[in-house]
Design brief:
This protein is of the alpha+beta class. The protein has helices at residues 28-31, 59-65, 114-117, 138-155, and strands at residues 2-11, 17-24, 38-39, 54-57, 76-79, 82-89, 108-111, 127-128. It has 4 helices and 8 strands; from the N terminus they run E-E-H-E-E-H-E-E-E-H-E-H. It has a 6-stranded mixed barrel with strand order 1-2-7-4-6-5. The chain is globular.
Length: 173
């Protein structure tokens, strides 16, 4: 699961407002073993370019900005000038770990399009979440990620992006 924190501009609900957003591949919520309070989370096909834009919103955003509307599913949000259909509301207190946005809660999660991941060299930074196979130690996983990072850096040299992969156990985030 890849995630990257960002911000989006919400319009259409009064004055324009900057929201904290997380772009993510499908599977984030399942990897964190969390089900939405209402609706659903993203499907893998929703990561494809040109698909209908969907969003999962935080419980706090739902309560404060949308007045805990029980009919919120499929309601449209305009984010950065594009319409997104709300497909899910997360339970109270849900936040995913992110060393980039500690203390800044996410208001909305949107799919991280596979076109972004496949765009070659870009300036995006991603956090990747995964579960270790019970037969794999942390040291083994870090060694493999270091080797992969080094291969990618050799294949795509970029002085501004060293391409370092650092594994951090979720219990430490």
């Amino acid at each position: 699961v890849a995630i990257t924190p960002t911000s989006v501009t919400l319009t259409g609900l009064g004055e324009a407002e900057l929201l904290q957003a997380t772009k993510t591949t499908a599977g984030l919520f399942e990897a964190l073993d969390t089900q939405p309070l209402l609706g659903r989370t993203f499907r893998p096909d929703e990561e494809q370019p040109g698909r209908t834009r969907v969003a999962v919103i935080s419980n706090a955003f739902w309560r404060t900005r949308l007045r805990a509307d029980p009919q919120v599913l499929d309601r449209s949000l305009t984010l950065d000038g594009e319409a997104y259909a709300i497909v899910g509301v997360m339970p109270p207190g849900f936040q995913h770990p992110s060393p980039w946005s500690v203390g800044t809660p996410t208001d909305v999660w949107i799919p991280l399009g596979l076109d972004v991941l496949n765009a070659g060299r870009n300036r995006n930074r991603f956090i990747v979440l995964g579960r270790l196979n019970p037969r794999v130690t942390y040291a083994m996983a870090q060694a493999e990620m270091t080797a992969i990072s080094e291969r990618l850096a050799r294949a795509n040299p970029d002085p501004g992006n060293p391409g370092v992969a650092l594994l951090i156990p979720l219990r430490q985030v």
